[in-house]
Amino acid sequence: MTERMIExxxxxxxxxxxxxxxxxxxxxxxxxxGSMLWWDEGFCRALADGGRFVVRYDHRDTGRSTTYxxxxxxxxxDDLLADIGRVLDGLGLDAAHLVGVSMGGGLSQDFxxxxxxxxxxxxxxxTSPVVAGGDLPGIADEYGAxxxxxxxxxxxxxxxxxxxxxxxxxLAGGRRPFDEAYMRALVARDMARADRYASAGxxxxxxxxxxxxxxxxxxxxxxxxxxxxxxxxxxxEHGAALADGIPGARLMTIEDAGHGLEPADHxxxxxxxxxxxxx
Length: 279
What we know:
It contains eight helices and eight strands, in the order βββαβαβαβαααβαβα. The chain has helices spanning 41-49, 77-90, 103-114, 141-147, 157-171, 180-193, 236-245, 266-276, and strands at 2-8, 11-18, 25-29, 53-57, 96-101, 119-125, 223-228, 250-254. It starts with a strand and ends with a helix.
């Protein structure tokens, strides 16, 4: 694996790659407040071992990418969207397979709608349609109750870590065993690596950018939608709506899985992505 900085338009984006640059590129786009570490290294290696050139990167305000003062993001959703293109350009890639989870899935939808020639295929995980329409269920009561709790003191790193782990437990859906040791270790590494960990909260403060001028039916890239049946943020109906709205899309549900990519599903999802990107 190789980590490097891409600097353009006054923005520094930290990127890490796995595998042979001559293999088909797969760009992983993480969700809100998530650095590249939330794409597990073993998961990335499994994709690379399957013959893919895998790219993961830190969104701005996470990891080692450009950060802004906590509570004062100097960008909006359109800038996060443009960062996908900056990563591709910085690596000399005309196009790639995009794999986006949660907010990253929304960014991936917007990117293919704005730049269809740069996307070979889409994998959309734990996300929701970016184009308005339909009556989809809201967040689960358990997650709503968690969000209503007061946030920890940002200067109390132990309290912050405990809060993040607790949130991932709720997001896991509660139907399967929760790997707390794995999650605590991940959060500790993420906090230690970040230039300014508190800045990740800026993602929740940014404007989403302009409303999409497009329709999901315009997406021509082969699309795989992956969704857990116990997702408390975007209930599984959101994934079904995506698959229904994108021509030819396939929906893969993971029984009792919650929001995001859990360790128990790494092998299953890696196989699905390799099969989807093989064409």
